[in-house]
Amino acid sequence: MLFLMIAEAVLALVAWQLSGGGLIPTPVKVLQSLGAIVTERDFIDNLFSSLSLTIKGMAISIIIALVISYLSMIPFFHPISRFVVKCRYLTLTGLIFLFTLWTQNGHQLKISLLIFGIVPFFVTSLLAVFENISVQEFELCTTLRMNSWKTWLEVVIRGRLDQVFEVMRQNFAIAWLMITSVEGLSMSEGGLGVMLIKANKYVQLEKVFGTLVIIFILGVLFDYILGKMRHWLFPYTQLQIRHS
Amino acid sequence: MNYTKHNVLLKADGVNLQYGDKQILRDINFSIQDIHRPEVSQGQVVSLIGRSGIGKTQLFKILAGLIKPTSGIVTIEEDQHPVAAGEMGIVPQHYVLFNHRTIYHNLKIGLDNAAVKLSDDEKKRIIADYAETFELTEHLKKYPAQLSGGQRQRVSIIQQVLTGNKFILLDEPFSGLDILMIDKVIKLLLRVSTLHEQNTLIIVSHDIENAAAISDTVWILGTEEGKPGATIVKEYDLCKTDLAWRPDIHTNPDFIKLIQEIKQQL
């Protein structure tokens, strides 16, 4: 499968190069631009800015999303979590003005928007995980004489930690996707999004594509690392139930 | 065979279950008595036989205290108090275990919540003893997903035993197992039933022959003409008919006749 993927990617790149690209820069030009970008003086600063913003946003979002999702098991909080799920359909653009008033500086504004954008997706995935818990698991806890608190801890928290991690991995892509958008709201801190906006403004297509490739590679790399971490932290996730 | 019946350990008195207008269970009455045999810690094994969808699972959950009957009561133990959730162990058909815990920790959870408080060293020793007795020693560090169905079933049963549950309900314990595995399960159940004088296993099964072969009592859950809901239409006391605790039971002509009779009841 890996060989097939590599072969198909190489074929696509060769076809892209041979076609001349038209408006889109050819792979060789993108590669040259990529080399130039990574050697730029402020590249590391921009990269660090984007990464720290993403990680900080992710960390706060997962905590908020977990609290909302866990509380949703209490009937009083259920409508709140359902409302948060529906917030996926709220556009961030319309809320920028409100968030600008609420926050004190550009960094807070970016973090707030990132969190507001990610949390509904996190909550949606987490609720799906919790709703899929089989009744038999709760019944097992009852027969093992576990009280409500122990049952909740065992089944909902410990028993689903691996899936919470998987939700985090899957939603990292959303956070990474949003980062370039929110960075444009306050450019003083820099970031890959700022690099992208500047390159777009001056129609430096090679640089735009070079930055996109960096964002893409980093995203794939993080996905891979988080996947490996999940298997390391929760070894049982690699096992398939035997039916014999 | 020499035996005596003593105190009532489990009793269902006029149990009815109704969902809306639909009567699921009607006037269920039975009792399980403590059986004594000389020189054996003889527990009780009862089979509940009935067709699919008749209400076996609902009765199972009522006995376990997981759902409340519309009317009637289930009482357990010598003091005959109403059953509460957690007083009866359940081994579901698909052997639910904590997949995020190793077999050792799955068993330890049973001991952690037992009425008797033990030190970690004592728990370790008890788990090691049970693992050796029930051929699970080499699997203690594994996760449930690494075990076969039969092995998971064994863990599930032992987990309930370690919790201190003397009453264990088993849902279809022979389902999906090959002949060799069924033999092993039968041996395991017989062993569990003789671990303690008051250990009581209630087996819900479609497999009439194997369930009856290890039971001292067989209940047939069925319907009566013109009456809604399922009830126990027949009770077979295999101790009385000398068909209980016999290793060669499968070839016994009376047993074969009994199986035919049970099949006709369904």
UniProtKB/TrEMBL annotation, chain B:
Signal peptide: none annotated. Residues 10-248 form the ABC transporter domain. It holds the Pfam family ABC_tran. The keyword Kinase does not apply. SMART domains: AAA (SM00382). Gene3D superfamilies: P-loop containing nucleotide triphosphate hydrolases. One of its GO terms (molecular function) is ATP hydrolysis activity. InterPro entries: AAA+_ATPase (IPR003593), ABC_SmlMolc_Importer (IPR050093), ABC_transporter-like_ATP-bd (IPR003439), ABC_transporter-like_CS (IPR017871), P-loop_NTPase (IPR027417). It comes from the Bacteria. Keywords: ATP-binding, Nucleotide-binding, Transport. This is ABC transporter ATP-binding protein.
